[in-house]
Amino acid sequence: MTEVKGADGALRCSGCGIRLQTEEQTKPGYVPQQALEKEPIICQRCFRIKNYNESSSVTVEQDEFLKLLAQIGGKEALVIHIVDLFDFQGSVISSLQRFIGNNPVLLAVNKIDLLPKVTNWNKVRNWVQKEAKEMGLKVEDVILCSAKQSSGFDRLLEAVSEYRGNRDVYVVGATNVGKSTLINRLIHDYSDLDQELTVSRYPGTTLDMVHIPLDDGKSIIDTPGIVYPSRYSELVAPVDLGVILPDKSLKPAVYQLNEGQSIFFGGFGRFDFIQGERQSFTCFVSGRVPLHRTKLERADELFAEHAGEMLAPPSRENLANLPEWTRHEFRINKGSKQDLFISGLGWIKINNDFGAVIAAHVPKGVKVMVRPSLI
User: What does the radius of gyration of the chain's CA atoms come to, in whole angstroms?
Assistant: First the structure.
């Protein structure tokens, strides 16, 4: 049996060079126990790329991911940063520019199929450009796309051809943003997978980067998804992930609220209208998340008595595994068009002509912020 070992003596994948392990299927380097008898030994991810044109999602913690980004800064590269429009501020890698130097960046904004069909896409693109700039990102182009509907990818491929030059292409992104679908499309359009998978080894690291060879000798490099604990989608139990992540177009839920009223999002979170004239608020969340309106003065008691039952999902058991709720309060100025954004759960648009004081209650650590309205 042909074995590939690193300097530490550990068995490594002959495709990407990652240290192999048989315990955790979602972690880098996983290989089924029976596959250790085959020759050559490759990790499950490389096996899927070679045999099925399929790239599976692998994740790493932030420290390891930043080491990976630092390597890109020393190379001639085109970076495709794929983000989730539903969770834009939660999925953007805000420190990206600091690590990749002057390498050009294409911002691929996935899941546009979740927005209503009447959406003004030019306004959305302008919104993305402005928000990206506010977060310190310098991008060559913004491409709106939908992995689910396979829309926008032709334009992305055109942009790759336009900006790549003699560079490798690195694809980076957080978990659950659709990175694997993009990689699979790039493999289909650019790579001849009849040849052996290019070996990519970075001694002394446990980073999983898969190199997909291009006809000109360069490569598309699939990087692992970065885990951001500030995203609600990283905290919930697997059974609840399909609840909070929408899989179809969002149906805005409009509520006319008086001050002193609250809206529960199942047992995931709560929105309070604390002070202001009667006005409307539009909720953009997954259709599987039930909404429940109540009086603010009763909200704490209602949650204590009914969380995990009437206010569910999550169930009592899964709710107990989430951090305690933290309260975030904001003052919205009269006439401003703002969203209260909760990373991984959605947002509430304040249809504001009067000004308001509002608050959100979500598990500690989840990103909550006020931003200019997306729609």
Answer: 22
Q: What is the DSSP string of 243-254?
A: HHS--S----EE
pTM for this entry = 0.84
Burial (CB < 10 A; 0-12, 13-18, 19+), residue 197, is buried
pLDDT of residue 91: 95
d(CA 352, CA 56): 43
Name the one residue in this structure whose structure tokens are 């420290």: 63
- The pLDDT assigned to 219 comes to 82
The whole-number pLDDT of residue 2 equals: 42
* pLDDT reported for residue 197: 39
* Six-digit token string for 82: 């794929």
> Which residue intervals of the chain are DSSP H helices?
44-52, 62-73, 88-91, 96-100, 121-134, 153-164, 179-190, 238-244, 296-306, 316-320
Residue indicated by tokens 């569910």: 312
Q: What does DSSP say about strands 141-144 and 105-110: parallel, antiparallel, or unpaired?
A: parallel
3-state secondary structure of 105: strand
Q: How many residues does the chain have?
A: 375
Three-state DSSP at 158 gives helix
CA distances to 39, 40, 43, 59, 194 from 35, rounded to whole Å, are: 8, 9, 9, 22, 21
Instruction: Outline where 205-336 has alpha helix (H).
Output: 238-244, 296-306, 316-320
What are the backbone dihedrals phi and psi of residue 164, each rounded to the nearest 5 degrees, phi first? -70, -45
> Given strand 346-351, what is the order of strands in its sheet?
253-257, 279-285, 346-351, 338-342, 368-372
In the predicted model, residues of the chain with pLDDT beneath 50 are: 1-7, 194-207
Residues 341-350 as b or e (16 or more Cβ within 10 Å = b)? bbbbbbbbbb
Report yes or no: 344 and 274 within 8 Å, Cβ to Cβ: no
pLDDT in the model for residue 141? 97
Which domains, ranges and CATH numbers included, belong to the chain?
Answer: 54-226 (3.40.50.300), 238-372 (no CATH)
Q: How far is Cα 184 from Cα 154, in angstroms, rounded to an integer? A: 14
